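[09:14] KT: can someone run the structure on this one? pasting the chain below
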Amino acid sequence: AWNKHPMSVRVRVYGFLAILAILLAGWYAVNQYYFADDVARANSKQTAENERQSGDEAVPVELATAKQGPISSYLTSTANLRPLRDVVLATQSDGLVKRVLVEEGDFVDKEQMLCLLDDSEFLIKLKLTEQKLAQARLQLEKARIREQKAEVQIVNTHAELKRKQRAFAEKLVSEEEVATLRYRLDELEHDERVAASEVREFTHRVEELEAEIEQVKLELSRTRIVAPFSGYITERTVELGQTVRNLDSLFRLGAFSPLYADVHLSELDAHRVRPGQTAMLSLGSEGSVSIQGRVLRISPIVDDSTGTVKVTVELAPSKHAFKPGSFVRVDIETDSRLNVVLIPKRALLEEDGENFIFVAQGDSARRRKVTLGYETAREVEVREGVSVGESIVVAGQGNLKEGAKIREVES
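[09:31] RB: done, structure tokens below
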């Protein structure tokens, strides 16, 4: 059969091969088209990744420069401010409130009258007693005059008796005249003793009435409630027309300068404190307003219930209106160091009990372990790990890794 139809078989074979070649060429062309598209996409993606890593993916951070300066160590505690004096003023007598002269918040001077009770009864009593005293003094004066008159008469009678006795010795006068003179002298001495007794009696009466007047004046003074010292009226509990009793509370008076903060430190910490040391007192939990103070005194005993020692800090005068009862944070300076390396405290990170920071080197961040010293609310001393002048990452470091790209932004 092969020999019989050679041309037709050959034509069929060649046709099959031609069709196969056409199919293979089409498949190759299609694959080349999709392969080129994938390569273009990959190249585009790589280009975008490179651009992202080179620019847009740099971590934005805020930088600060490590500086050189002084720093101090502090013992920190909290307290409520108390005034120099804070007393309750109470009445010392019964009476009706006649006048109320001050209100809460008023500043009063020492001895200024705050309140007046009805004093009419004491004024009448004082006037009557003064009249009795005047009468007693008059009677005392008359008694003294009689005493003095009797004393003079006794002296004269003694002199005359001596003359009579000499005359009687010379038989110039009778014995009866001498006896009469002696009787006269006895009467005068009796009158002198009576007058002296009256003087003592009226002297005692005068003293008694003078003491009574002092008592009335004391009772009268107690109707006038006055300030024992200069300060502010922080509370008023009395009303006009109110009937008060002895020891009833009327006002509360406070002297606000200076103010004190009593802090309680452990016995170990208290050994680091001395009178005169500087302290900083910050108002409230945020500490936005601060004022300088000093350690005034340290309690000589340890409170057996808390195991703490009371340290009293006195505030310096200030324009800031610190008030009694304000909650303050007290930082007592115990030591100072000069010319140390300082960085912002917010640059610190902690991991596994160790402190580290990120230092900017060009456009990269390098993680560095640091050894710390003293610290304040905003700064910390670096003993090892950082040099003065290096740029420290203070914001944005939470997203950094060793060698990460960074770009500085404004704070």
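[09:33] KT: thanks! The radius of gyration is 54 Å.
[09:34] RB: yep, looked fine to me
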